[in-house]
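Researcher: I'm preparing a figure for a lab meeting and need a structural model of a single chain. I don't have an experimental structure, so a prediction will have to do for now. The sequence is pasted below. Please return the structure as tokens so I can convert it later.
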Amino acid sequence: MIIFRYLTREILTGTFAINIVLLFVILSSRFGRFLNEAVSGRISADVLFSVIALRIPVILELVLPLSFFIALLFALGRLYIDSEITALSSCGYSRRKLLWHASGSAFFIAALVALLSLWLSPLSLDQSNSILERERARHEFETLSPGQFQVLSETGSVIYTEAMSADRKILQNVFAADLNLGDEGGNQRPVVLVKASAGEQIYDDQYQRKYLRISDGVRVEGEPGSLNYRVVEFESYAQLLEEAQIRYKSAHDRMPTLALMKEQDAEAEAALHWRFSMPVLVMVLVLLGVPLAQTDPRRGRYTKMIPAVLLYMGYLVVLNATRGSIEDGDLPANRLWWVHAGAIVVGLFIFNSDLLGRLLLSRRRQNSHA
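Model: Understood. Here is the structure written out token by token.
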């Protein structure tokens, strides 16, 4: 029991330490991508940290198995380097008992991964995507940044405002330009420039629509390179603001597990089997990690680290490729479990490689004596 607690503490401590580092690295890249969207005005900066926080369970689902595998290799490698495993082996501590004791921490990590993949990750992914879709569905007028030229994706117009009120409804020193020079038929369209001293977003109760009303301005319309243009001064000018519709994606990764079980299409089956296979991945990794961590002081702790990580990456790549084939309808959903079965066979072969080597050596000696 003392060895079990000692080994579990070493593996879990390393797992959470490595997990924090990997999580920080991945979150930094994701934060940079969402920060670019906030700077460009596609999403509001107020929801930036909420979206990042909701993406943490999704990232942990993929990072935890890798963190556990690396921590297992580090912990057992240190025991081999410090000759602790040698001392335990002299007392009758076998590799099978080492596997059994290492499986305790694997069960704990597998339970966390199951909680994430079956419940928390779909829930957080659905909420974060809903926030992003609502932000991107807002009218771009609400995401304007004072002092910056911004292109409206719906109309292709360029708009600039020098200042904006706190409620983002009143603008000062507004400039707008419609630079769309041609229509679908190739006919040239005039350029429209508008400059006004003030602008305000208003809501018409009669038509229940939003308008941008600008006042004390000038509207210039004409063709580039031509002296034929028209200048109109106005006291008040209103432009309809089209309301974008929220378009929710029916991604199966966002669906609750119970709802996913009722779906019959190939993508739903692939997503469902993937969720159940993630905890199994952790248990297979402990079978691979225990024999791959074996080393000695002469070879060093990191001798088998690179082959072990490459084996893990190959395992994960084959799983992803199989899932893609299932989603395309090329393979049945149960083929995902064939990959796990193949990894178990490889793990059993590596785990019993010493025994197989001794059997082959004794067989050769017997043949030579004969």
